[in-house]
## 1
Amino acid sequence: MTNGSSQQKKVLAPMVRIGTLPMRLLALEYGADLVYSEEIIDRNFLDCYIHDNEKYSIKEWISNKTQLSFFSTCVKERDRLVVQLGTSNANYAWKAAEKIVPFCRGIDVNMGCPLDYSTKGGMGSALLKTPEIASDIIKTLRRNLPSEYSVTAKIRLFPVLQDSIDFVHMLANSGADAVAIHARQVHERAKDKANWNQLAQIATHLSNIPLLGNGDIFSSQDMQQMKEQTGISQWMIARMAQWNVSIFQGTLDSIHNVIVRYVKLAQDTNTYYGLAKYCLQQMIKYQKWTKTEFASKINHSQCWKDLEDSLVFVPPHP
Ligand SMILES: Cc1cc2nc3c(=O)[nH]c(=O)nc-3n(C[C@H](O)[C@H](O)[C@H](O)COP(=O)(O)O)c2cc1C
């Protein structure tokens, strides 16, 4: 069984606060084929300017209102970066896409976020209930973007299988180049097992559009297992990449190396230290290091120098 494109791809999933430039670059260094940005709400792009930060060789999108950077990228990821938009309006989505397309390879629309802040504005999983708006957004992006840029969507499962199939079918007919399916329903959380059986059935019905399989991939074995069970060989990985992004190279690298490389990339890309601190805290939790001196140093850090100094306390390899 194969779905659409049988070419294997490992993809960094969109993750708020995690999927910023240094994590994306590290994912690529460890072998990811594609990296999704965290979700960015379309309106941010409508009221911003692009700062060419020559010191760091990056471009930064700065809000006119706050003068803070809400997105950054660099040439190294240009051909492998998909920017995910939070949107409920085709016109805004296109205006936002216009501000970013020269610097990425595609635009994705978040149609799966279950959180109130997203759904209240008609974004995220609210789009699963408004297929005409979802279709309008995809059609508008596809119509306006040059064909070398991909237009994709990331969805969740519907309670009824046929509804998932119909929705993906609608996206394909609207011009989507691929659809990522997070194999959980909107009300389900990370502790609920991802439903690969449904993925398999959707893939069987939809051979005309590439599908990315997402949910509960924690190892290379899981990727092979998903391929065998569903025919899908484009794997989108979120939490395991958050915990140890070397998942993309197959065998995990030591978390010590991952941490050192992440911190270096974060510093080299003008990343706010608080954001790097947050990412390190997620890695620490997964290692069950919360009671170590390293964790304490990270938790108390207040600047880049503190974070850097704490690296000597990373526990040794087990
Ligand atoms: C910290 C975090 C942030 C996330 N942010 C986004 C997001 O911005 N957009 C999105 O579509 N999904 C987001 N997700 C969902 C993931 O992309 C993914 O669908 C989900 O975690 C299931 O994949 P996994 O089992 O590999 O973790 C987020 C997940 C996590 C853990």
Note: Residues 9-249 form a domain with the TIM Barrel fold (CATH 3.20.20.70).
## 2
Amino acid sequence: MDSTTITLRPPSAIANRLAGQVALITGAAGFIGLETTRRFLQEGARVVLIDLDEEKLARAKTALADISNVEENTLFVRADVTSEPETQAFVDQAVSHFGRLDSVFLSAGLSYSRTSILETDVDLYDKVMAVNCRSAFLGVKHCGRAMKSLGNGGSIILASSASGLRASRGMTAYSMAKFALRGIALTAANELGPYGIRLNTIHPSGVDSPMFESSWPEEERNAMLQNVPLRRWAQPNDIAAVITFLASNDAQYLTGGAYKVDGGSVYN
Ligand SMILES: NC(=O)c1ccc[n+]([C@@H]2O[C@H](COP(=O)([O-])OP(=O)(O)OC[C@H]3O[C@@H](n4cnc5c(N)ncnc54)[C@H](O)[C@@H]3O)[C@@H](O)[C@H]2O)c1
């Protein structure tokens, strides 16, 4: 079947859906994290941006400078999400700076060039599990504690992947880590639901991003696109829009869910 060129519609008008919220985003200087930060700010939230990379954080600050009142509505913190003391410290800092914690998007993650499990070094495995998975455990633990004691409930969104729902040849460690996020989301959703704390995972397939391009060779990406009914990879705002919805009160009866954001990809 021939594909047709279509014109994408612009993102929906901003509806101030996160007015009054304080949000914390890890990996906030990354491709998806930064777009989500922008969207959250435009929707009225105050945002704490966490990232390991100081230079990327500085670039993120410049990139967001066009948003009104951005200085007073943001807090930039360089921290390592795989460290428990650092995670506890940035959650405490977020709460003491802004006085609340309503939404958390745990976006920090690490991928790698496709490699057979037969050739995957255990040090790479450990690193991938730490950045994608240990960080989620620590983030849910400390953000969950803060939300419980603040007493306003909250929404925690975990950045899984299509690789957290299906086989991803050459990405065993990444896939294991992203599958594990379902375990955290489902179990913690059960434990924390009585405090009004919701947990959901999102599962993007390919996002037009450096991470995707460095993980999959162009030829394979082109072949994979034939399995995407919408015949394009996601743009960062496609992902940020879903995260914003899950953070908003419009999603207040959604917890433990797994949301594919993949253009209807046909998995095989
Ligand atoms: N890009 C895609 O195609 C895609 C598809 C599916 C899922 N995802 C997932 O979405 C998330 C975001 O992806 P992205 O494309 O924005 O990636 P990215 O590489 O652009 O951003 C990740 C950010 O995490 C930060 N980070 C890495 N290790 C850290 C640590 N130890 N402590 C704190 N920060 C750390 C990096 O500095 C970077 O800014 C990831 O979890 C990724 O696995 C991405």
Note: The chain has a mean pLDDT of 95.
